[in-house]
Amino acid sequence: MHILIVEDSALVASGIKTGLELHGFTCDIAASLAEAGRHMAGSHFDACILDLGLPDGDGLRLLGQWRAAALHLPVLILSARDRIEDKVAGFQTGTDDYLTKPFDLTELVLRLHALLRRASGRATDLLDFGSFQINMACAQVSRLGQPVELARREWALLSALVQANGRVLSAAQLHDSLYGFDQDVGSNTVNVHVHHLRRKLGQEVIETVRGLGFRLGAQAQTRQP
């Protein structure tokens, strides 16, 4: 899943990016409101971590613009502003969650998963697709009761399809979920990861929609109780 980190401290932003990528996320960093706007215009993100004190303005202004434009991207404010008045302002402007600095990375990861779970309409991070099971919070997959080892990009692809909840994602959208702006990769990489996932979890796990892209297979979409 693709996360936009809007944070002007290079050290903090790099630490968040490194930590989230260890948990299977793909991240890009914007150090200003202007850069965040350019990133949003040029790519798809599943959620945003938003600092407030940015060099070219207040993060609340950017959040207000997004909400006024009916952009429903899940947003988690991550700020040193810890007064109740600041939190109220954040929620009234449209943030989905608010975490103060200093923070614990594990808590940040759990809060992100909760945001993404609500955005996709899921009640739990534990998903049963019949032949295979997924723990979204722990990035763990099993098939027929046996653990399945997935490479980081394979997990990113699978989680993007789960998050889409049956919608078709184009190869370009999936590419955004797998790679950041600073990575130059071949045009066939999405197809390669699709092939690997099918080999590990079964051909039915991903359905190709000719001319449009990919979606979670119809059998995989039927979640068992």
Automatic annotation (TrEMBL):
The keyword Transcription applies. The keyword Transcription applies. Residues 124-218 bind DNA. SMART domains: REC, Trans_reg_C. Its main location: cytoplasm. Keywords: Cytoplasm, DNA-binding, Phosphoprotein, Transcription, Transcription regulation, Two-component regulatory system. CDD domains: REC_OmpR_PmrA-like, trans_reg_C. It comes from the Bacteria. Residues 124-218 form the OmpR/PhoB-type domain. The modification 4-aspartylphosphate is found at D51. It holds the Pfam family Response_reg. SUPFAM superfamilies: C-terminal effector domain of the bipartite response regulators, CheY-like. Residues 2-116 form the Response regulatory domain. Gene3D superfamilies: 3.40.50.2300, 6.10.250.690, Winged helix-like DNA-binding domain superfamily/Winged helix DNA-binding domain (1.10.10.10). It is found in: Cytoplasm. PROSITE patterns: OMPR_PHOB, RESPONSE_REGULATORY. This is Response regulator. It comes from Acidovorax bellezanensis.
